[in-house]
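Quick question, first post here. What does this chain look like in 3D?
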Amino acid sequence: MPTSAQKRLKGLVSIGESLTWSRCPTAINQKTVDVLTEVFKCEYASVYLLAVSGDYLIQHVACGDLPNHVQSDNRISISTGRMLDMLTTHQPIVMDFLYPDPADRIPDSVMFRSAASVPLLAGDDMLGMFTVVYAKHYRWSQQDIDYLLDVGKLLGVAVQHAQIARKNTDLEILLERKRLSGELHDHLSQLIGALNMNAETALLSWEQDDAERLRRDLERIRHTSQEAVRMLREEMLSLRLPVDETKGLIPQIRECIGLFEKQWRIDTDLQLEAGLESIVVSNQMELQFIRILHEALSNVLRHATASHVSVQLQREQNRLCMQVHDNGRGFDPEAVSSQRLGLRIMCERAESLGGELTIESSNGTGTTIRVDVPQHITAGINKHDLRKSHSVIGG
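> Answer (accepted):
Ran it through. Tokens below.
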């Protein structure tokens, strides 16, 4: 274990750096426990998190080699003995395998001589513990105990942040499911209702032996069913976007535009302000921007009769702005209800980011949909090194 104040400070910094943002919580967990073995110069280290029930700890990750005949406990009860003392006093448990405490269960191995189990603390809450094990005998000083507690607090706060981020992600998923269910229901229900009405009309034409009218009715049924298939296909394509792990904002925009242009043969281009190519934004912002773009392109396909679409991204003061402009027939925004499903959902998505959505259009001049949100972005950082979510141990 490091002894000087400078070494201990460097150790805390190393552990803190291991908790960097990542797309892979498992990788962070392993990196953190690897750093623990380096900082404490121990042979084995592990991290346990408190189960939802609150009565036992579950091992999440470990580093180091145990003898084949020594098994690490993957699940430890905290309702009795010294584990209960740690839960109530928030003090580490230090173990001397040469002179053990009667309550300690010593591994059947000559490989280890000393160990310590340290609570992961976030304020007054214990969220888990980390354990370090040594092959040599170690006499623990009060400074050692204080240092162990400092590390436990650092990891405890990281665990708490991860749990909060996880809850936020779960809430975002629920809200997104609600929006998507509304889109699927309202978009398709109109078409299915039209199919039902056309089928009733066709049946009446058949009963009246009116072949020409029956043919027209069947044509309408075919056209409406094709529209329903197309709309459902568009919605299914939009569902390919995951909520918690994506490729980055600009790659997602390029993919969305590419799919639209390839499928519908409408010329579409992307214009980026300098410096935005490598931006990193939150998962929530990335998801909502892509959903808004998808809905805007769907509206171009359904209503605009356009031959060209331009998507622009730029920064204005402290806001990130996206504009989708088409050269279609346009419309009178005053004549269209603000509660129309597609427009309402796009507005809700922008508002969920603290931003706003505006529409500019008139008959014969095309349509511009603009969304601008507070600029919670990080520019110029390699997106493979810094990702969006605060995923750490337990995340």
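Residues 244-395 form a domain with the Heat Shock Protein 90 fold (CATH 3.30.565.10).
The first helix runs from residue 5 to 17.
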